[in-house]
Amino acid sequence: MAETPIPITPLHPPFSWSDRIKFALGGYALYTLGKLGHYLYRLKGLFGAPANGPDLVKRYACRPMLEVLFFYPPSYDKAAGPEKQKLPTLLTIHGGGFVIGNPEDTNTWNHEFVRQKHETFVVSLNYRKAPRHPFPTAIHDLEALTLAILGDKSLPIDLDQVAIGGWSAGGNLAMAVSSLPSMQGRFRALVPVYPVTDFSIRTPEKILTRHYKPDIKGFRGRLRDFLSPVVPTFNWAYLPKNATPADVASPLLSTTHIPKESLPLYVFNISCELDMLSHEAWVMMSKLAGRPVPAEPKSGSSEAHAPGALILDDERFAFEERTENSSYKWLLVPDALHGFDMTFVHRFKKDPLYEDHMLKKGLCMALINEWLFSGPFKA
Q1: Longest Cα pair distance anywhere in the chain, in angstroms?
Q2: Is residue 241 assigned to a domain?
Q3: Which of 253, 331, 246, 328 minimizes the C-alpha distance to 291?
Q4: pLDDT for 255
Q5: What radius of gyration do the chain's Cα atoms show?
Q6: Which residues form a coiled coil (predicted)?
Q7: Confidence class of residue 63 from pLDDT cuts 50, 70 and 90?
Q8: Angle at 321 between CA 315 and CA 325, to 5 degrees
Q9: Cα–Cα–Cα angle for 103, 72, 168, nearest 5°?
């Protein structure tokens, strides 16, 4: 079967008045649903601790409206206190197109990660959402919270072993925050997972940079990238309303343009083959690694792959440029959708993608854990 994707109307700033009205309705509806989801989660917590929930929840004076969630490894002895137990720490940032989502969306991932082979302390960050709080509010929220957390003596953070990562919009924000002057030297590593990295590429162009595989049964075989219908609304909500092409290409938005020297020396990007954002991340990681910019117009390959497995012997899917003091690592998860490692996949338990994505999630978590402790967290 042909893999030609369903086309989408090109929408990008500057927006017309009719676009603004349409996206305002959609953007604020999504924003409200995101807030409602958070309150429902809190309400559920009144009737018992949620499964895989955090061990600690705190607020800081710099951003009292934002909760921060903390996950301790099972071996941590809270009675001994943080002075005697300093832990390698990973700060994580949830996704949601800068508009929806909450820290608890990543609870399961964070809960499982602190139980990997090499134990870490995980901190789940939060930020205010667009369209009520557009760019650059989220970046400044995360900067302020990071400084407060790293200065919190009650936490068992080893300040010499701190990494930051995030998913989708959170991956973009992790990159942007790590590049700020106030953050220089604070992070040993950066782990963006299926991040948006280049707002200057229009959605109709992005959907052509991935393969579509209609021969795969189920949701993954669709000829439409499931992000494409909502991306214009997310763009309207987050981007400056009168943004010029130069504004949209600025490094704090299009993080592919962040100078290499402003990022941590260890960067591990994980992207999904069936994702309109994968090619731009591939280009970014190739530049960071000092490799030629990919000549292929699409990331990945057109054929279906073995279920439950990664591809580590094909440089389209995996490479690493490592020195004694740095690493730039790329991983493209085959036949995986954007969000493959998040709980939204649980909606597809009758679809073959569910078991496949859960297996690949576990493999990716183990790779991140091993990579951190073989380089940036190496004793």
Answers
A1: 62
A2: yes
A3: 328
A4: 98
A5: 20
A6: none
A7: very high
A8: 160
A9: 30
Kindly state whether residue 4 falls inside one of the protein's structural domains: no
189 belongs to a structural domain: yes
pLDDT band at 157 (very low <50, low <70, confident <90, very high): very high
Note the Cα 270 to chain centre separation in Å: 9
Total Cβ atoms within 10 A of residue 10:
10
d(CA 273, CA 318): 12
| CATH code of the domain containing 218 | 3.40.50.1820
pTM of the entire predicted model: 0.93
Taking residues 108-127, report their average pLDDT. 97
- Number of domains within the chain: 1
**Which residue range is the domain that position 314 belongs to?**
17-374
Helix 169-178 vs helix 137-150: crossing angle, to nearest 10 = 60
Q: What distance in Å separates the CA atoms of residue 143 and residue 13, rounded to the nearest whole number?
A: 27
Q: Find where tokens 């390959």 sit.
A: 301
Contact call for residues 187 and 146 (beta carbons, < 8 A): no
Measured in whole angstroms, the distance separating CA 194 from the mean position of its chain's CA atoms is 6
Could you please report the per-residue DSSP string of 328-353?
EEEEEEEEEETTTTSGGGGGGTTSHH
Quick one: average pLDDT of 319-335?
97
Residue 245, classified by CB atoms within 10 Å of its CB into exposed (0-12), middle (13-18) or buried (19+), is exposed
30, part of any domain: yes
The helix-helix angle for 17-45 and 231-238 (nearest 10°) equals 90
Alpha carbon distances (Å) from 340 to 67, 272, 285, 345: 25, 8, 20, 6
The number of beta carbons lying within 10 Å of the beta carbon of residue 98 is 28
Report the alpha-carbon distance of residue 252 to residue 109 in Å, rounded.
Answer: 26
Q: Is residue 139 within 8 Å of residue 63, measured between CB atoms?
A: no
The residues pairing with 165 across neighbouring beta strands, listed in sequence order, are 92, 191
The model's pLDDT over 193-211, given as tens digits with 9 standing for 90+, comes to 999 999 999 898 999 999 9
| pLDDT of 33 | 74
Q: Which residue has the higher pLDDT, 103 or 45?
A: 103
